[in-house]
Amino acid sequence: MTSKVQKKDITLFILFNIFIPTLFFCFAFWFMPVGETFLFDTDEGQELIKAVLYAKDFTFSSQIWSDQPPLLTIVLSHWFGIFGTSVLAARLLILCFSTLAIWSFCQILRFCLGNLLAIVATFLLCVSCNFLRLSVSVMIGMPAIALTLLSIYIVISYLENVHISQEKILLKQSKIFTRRQQADSPSPHYPINPLSQVLSHVILLLFSGVCFGIALQFKMFVIFLIPLFCFILCDLTKIGKMKIAESIFPALIWLLSAGTTFTLLGIAFGSLNLGSILNFHVSSNLKDVFVRENSAIDVLVMFLQDFDYVLLAGIGVAVILKKRSKIHLFPLIWLFLSTLLLLNHKPLWYHHYILLSLPLTWLASYGVSLAVPIFKTKLGFSRTPIAHSSILPKIAAGLCIFSLVAIPIKLGVIQWQNQLFAKESQDKFAVVNNILEYKENTHWLFTDNPGYAFYSNILVPPEIAVLSRKRVASGEVTQEYLNALLNKYQPEQIILERFPEVYEPIRPELEANYSKIYEKGSTRHFVRR
User: Fold this and answer.
1) Which residues cross the membrane (predicted)?
2) Residue ranges per domain, the chain?
3) Under DSSP, is residue 216 helix (H, G, I), strand (E, B) or coil?
């Protein structure tokens, strides 16, 4: 019997820790055109060129302008030093983070809903809108998400370990009490010290906090989850039985670990001065610029992209509310907080959806759990009769079938997008070939799409390594600022294609000192005379 249990444990270990992560890595690498696509997003070009500039000893804040923490840039520059400076190497790095996210998510769902539903939930996440695209795009969101999910998994492991330890102590006390009763001796009181239980597992809290602190140094858009972590870790229901300090001690340990990690990394990389970055993202002036953007409509469209998950999540909420453990409230509160955050944020991009899709898929899995008994009975895996008292399981089963039908459609949409990327990449690589013809005499490339600079291995002025729509719209990139950069760097080549707000102010300079050698659509390529 013991041998069978051990074999089962080994099989499950291989399945969830080796097979599923490896399968996802291979599928994403095969399904997505990782090596053929010029850029999945212009943000890729920014991250790639920042890593190159950093490797050339340009520094953040004083030289490289950026509105995000620099950790991915630093990691990527060292990654290039080991595996070579290429788009493929960078995308494989992000795919490694994505695989970590898949593994962590699967482990979380194993705890919450069991092995079968963990597999189902992980598959649903993989085919959710834009997840595969983000899994191979050189952007800062996925590394932050991966480490956040790892932090959540470690917190869940901590809570489970503490619960098991308390049960063991209670069992031990029960045995001692029984023996003393048999000996007709008085039974002393053996109180459980919650603080000692926390200290015995404090390494898990510290590790979770470290992971979250690192996640914030990749991208700070997960900072809204801090109150949720504290809510899960605090045991305020027992304040009458223990001191308040003991009930909030786990949360304090976690906060101290996350805060210390974030601070130490900030000191090491010179990224602690984040006031200007935060002000740039939340300033009312920036919101006023995007007056045509409607965050409520954008959030609604995001939810409609995985409408089948939304319906299953609605049923999942009913399941969660019947459970007593706070950990089951995690996805519900996460979805509420992220929705509230995005409703008050401008502008919204497609990659923000991952803040919704993760808790939405998690919640949808609870809805799927209601349908599992029906499918088991119908398929002959269970002889338990189906209860007819509730209609929710039948609705959940119908929605599961609807979701299965939608999967080929979602994968078809991704394939269609990949074909568009391939067609667009042909034009982009043609521009790169034109750049390379003049590379011998080129020291600087002035462009609003730094992907061209990365592919041609030419530096851009570090001040415009990040020339985003938000930065241009904020009014920071003025005519005086652009002309000053042109005078400072005297770029031999200029390529503009994204922002008329950049092209028009320097048009007189282009007409006076540059020759246009290429124009197609919005792309204009100039060479200095």
Assistant:
1) 12-32, 79-103, 115-134, 140-159, 198-215, 221-239, 251-275, 295-320, 327-344, 350-375, 395-416
2) 438-528
3) helix
